[in-house]
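Give me the 3D structure for Pentatricopeptide repeat-containing protein.
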Amino acid sequence: MKLPAWLTAVPPDPRAYGHLIQLCADTGHLAAGRQLHARLVASSVTPSNFLASKLISLYSRGAHLDDARRVFDAIPRPSVFAWNAILIALSLHSADPSDAARLFAASGISPDEITLSALLKS
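Predicted structure for Pentatricopeptide repeat-containing protein (122 residues):
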């Protein structure tokens, strides 16, 4: 999936990029998702929790746990949504399923039902 020319000519709009990254994750277009991520980096955009969660999901669906973790680790103050995204990624793809539980134990966040579901799966 090649990015349209107009997309590279304008500054990144977080909502539009979030939608496009989600579309790439849903359709399995990891290469296009990586291009979008690279465009954000090149534009010096620090992904918000919203964008970071979408990127974590993209990399998780492609079984690229290291990339998902790098995105998560770059978030200054991860929201519960970002935490859920990385915990789901870890519960699905980590060689050691207890990685998600260990990371959560050190988080200090208040879990929601998605957090608990990801932890139970791990």
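Helices lie at 5-8, 14-27, 30-42, 49-61, 65-73, 80-93, 98-105, 113-121. Let me know if you want a second pass.
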